[in-house]
Amino acid sequence: MAATTCSHHSPLPLPSSHNFNRHNPLVNPTVSATKKGLTQTRYRKGAIKCAREFSDFVGGDLLKPDLGKWLADVEEHKAIAIYSPHEGGYEGRYLNRLRYQGYRFLDLSARGLGDPETTLTKIHPVCPAHVGKQPIARWYFPPEVDYRLSLLPPDAVGLVVWILEAKVLSKAELQFLALLPTLRPKVRVIAECGNWRKFVWTPLKDIAGLTANEAV
């Protein structure tokens, strides 16, 4: 489910919790001693060095005891932007944790989503491919979110709308997704907004440029 890295749009900003340092320009790399006896390399101009952690050497994400915080943040913010490693697979454990809580899922790709407000909450037209032989037709489909909500079993907690490749969406489209749980209280939104060297997340309203007061 990991999003690809190529896009003609400008990349979305990473959450503020990510710490990376841009070093001063040097002609040649130099090595200096640190307090812990380790070595720290300073790079040429424009290089970025990310701080290393213990999990980087032993396989990573599976050692992070953050599933409780993940569930708490989903319930608190209701719309989350996630950043997963390029190789993919890590987000599955977070998806499964929501499934264990009783959520059902609606997986959609942002590249074929169209206008999110129309597709998710209104009756919308779809023109099937006519391949040059059939007449051009227009079919009408029910709102994706409302239709799935009507089909939820009685024991379901809610519906998670999982958006793949959400980094191609505009800021206005991301703002609507951030406000969707306000319009549909049983809906939670998870948007894959990019990639990072470990699985991290942040409230979608921060990525979309909404303040806390606007999102309420």
From TrEMBL:
Region (Disordered): 1-29
Gene Ontology, cellular component aspect: membrane
Keyword Membrane: yes
Extent of Low complexity compositional bias: 7-18
Keywords for this protein: Membrane, NAD, NADP, Plastoquinone, Quinone, Translocase
Keyword flag S-adenosyl-L-methionine: no
GO molecular function: oxidoreductase activity, acting on NAD(P)H, quinone or similar compound as acceptor; quinone binding
Entry protein name: NADH dehydrogenase-like complex N
Organism whose genome encodes this protein: Deinandra increscens subsp. villosa
Lineage: Eukaryota, Viridiplantae, Streptophyta, Embryophyta, Tracheophyta
